[in-house]
Amino acid sequence: MYEVQTANVHRLGKILVDGQGFTLYVFAPDKDSGTSKCYGKCAAGWPPLVLPSGVSQAPAGPRVRAALLGQTKRKDGTVEVTYAKWPLYTWVTDSAPGDVTGQDINSLGGKWYVITPSGKLITKHL
Question: Where are the domains of the chain?
Answer without folding.
Answer: 4-122
